[in-house]
Write a structure and sequence with these properties.
The structure holds two protein chains of two kinds. By secondary structure, chain A is mainly β. In chain A, strands 2, 4, 5, 9, 10 and 11 form a six-stranded mixed beta sheet that branches. Chain A has a five-stranded antiparallel beta sheet with strand order 1-3-8-7-6, with no helix packed on it. Chain A contains no helices and eleven strands. By secondary structure, chain B is mainly beta. Chain B has no helices and eleven strands. In chain B, strand 7 and strand 8 (73-78) form a beta hairpin. The model of chain B has no long low-confidence stretch (mean pLDDT 88). The chains are: A mainly beta, B mainly beta. The A-B interface holds A 30-31, 33, 40-45, 48, 50, 85, 87, 89, 91, 95-97, 99-102 and B 4, 40-45, 90, 97-99, 101-102, 104-110.
Chain lengths: 109, 116
């Protein structure tokens, strides 16, 4: 079966750095997405990785290792507004998005 | 200038009723989607619709049916509502099919459905 695993919840301090991991087992791979979802709101796109390596975009970076079925989202200089759920999603061989349950990130002052 | 809009935002109804949720996108996108997000926060694709081609997730009961009057709209009809249908339903759109590199989906605000 297809499976996306992420930690359920993480806590970090304002100004610090946090890494949210995602491991996946899917039938084929056509890219991995990270989305941010604030409570009660729709998911919004953060990043897309299809090749191995690190993609940096401002305070957020996303890393992919296809051989390990592993990705992480790195958030630097954490701000209170970063408190949200972070969803990992993998596009399988049928170009369907398989979603993880999300990691709830709590930022403390 | 909302990109993807849905109505209603909240829907409370009785078991057995038939209801519709509307979705509109003003981005000129070719593909629209319906997702169901359950209490455990899993997002599950229900349908994708591109140029009159409907792709259905086979796990979706046939009580659910998408209707697309034009490229900018994809409505969701639900017949004989059941308690387990309670969830948040998100509409989304993308420029092409997700097969295109770096296609991203733009989500609507969600419709919170509660079946009593």
């Amino acid at each position: 079966g297809q499976n996306i695993d992420q930690p359920t919840e993480m806590t970090a301090t304002e100004g610090a750095i946090v890494q949210i991991n995602c491991t996946y087992q899917t039938s084929g791979f056509n890219g991995l997405f990270w989305y941010q979802q604030h409570a009660g709101e729709a998911p919004t796109f953060l990043s897309y990785n299809v090749l191995d390596g690190l993609e940096e975009k401002g305070r957020f970076s996303s890393f992919l290792s296809r051989s390990k079925g592993y990705s992480y989202l790195l958030l630097k200089e954490l701000q209170m507004k970063d408190s949200a759920s972070y969803l990992c999603a993998v596009m399988d061989s049928n170009y369907q998005l398989i979603w993880g349950a999300g990691t709830k990130l709590i930022i403390k002052p | 200038d909302t990109a993807v809009s849905q109505t209603p935002k909240y829907l409370v109804t009785q078991m057995g009723n038939d209801k519709s949720i509307k979705c509109e996108q003003n981005l000129g996108h070719d593909t629209m989607y319906w997702y169901k997000q359950d209490s455990k926060k899993f997002l599950k694709i229900m349908f994708s619709y591109n140029n009159k081609e409907l792709i259905i997730n086979e796990t979706v009961p046939n009580r659910f049916s998408p209707k697309s009057p034009d490229k900018a709209h994809l409505n969701l009809h639900i017949n004989s509502l059941e308690l387990g249908d309670s969830a948040v339903y998100f509409c989304a759109s993308s420029q092409g099919r997700l097969a295109e590199i770096q296609e991203t989906q733009y989500f609507g605000p969600g419709t919170r459905l509660l079946v009593l």
